[in-house]
Automatic annotation (TrEMBL):
Protein's UniProt keywords contain Transmembrane helix: yes
Organism: Gryllotalpicola protaetiae
Name the record gives this protein: AI-2E family transporter
Keywords of this entry: Membrane, Transmembrane, Transmembrane helix
Residue ranges of the region described as Disordered: 100-120
Segments traversing the membrane: 7-25, 31-48, 60-83
Domain of life: Bacteria
Comp. bias regions, Low complexity: 100-114
Length: 120
């Protein structure tokens, strides 16, 4: 019984801590979101920058090349995603492009619905 009480107490403390963290992030979203984006950019730029510095490039040049490279890669992925969605196999036509079989009453089969089928 004591073991269950100890685990319940720990669970409540962790749940309360998560709730407080979520509330603080929501309340300070104008500050927290840009900081998280900056951390993501730093995490993406750091490895190529270290690589270029090992090749004895100046810091400013390594940073510029790494940052431009990361921006080009992220921009290319965003462009690829946009082209794929606009080409027609987006959410609206997902059922017809899906490798999964569509049910006869789905929008992929507009002429056949479960209401138009005769009762057996």
């Amino acid at each position: 019984m004591q073991l269950a009480g100890q685990w319940a107490w720990r669970f409540l403390v962790v749940a309360a801590a998560i709730t407080v963290c979520v509330y603080v992030v929501a309340a300070l979203s104008e500050i927290v979101i840009p900081v998280l984006v900056a951390l993501l950019v730093c995490a993406l730029v750091a490895p190529p920058m270290q690589f270029f510095q090992r090749l004895r490039w100046p810091k400013w040049l390594a940073l510029a090349v790494s940052l431009i490279g990361v921006l080009v890669i992220v921009g290319g992925l965003a462009l690829l995603l946009t082209v794929q969605i606009r080409s027609g196999c987006g959410f609206t036509r997902w059922r017809s492009c899906s490798p999964l079989p569509a049910a006869p009453s789905s929008p992929a089969f507009p002429g056949r619905s479960s209401l138009s089928q005769p009762l057996r």
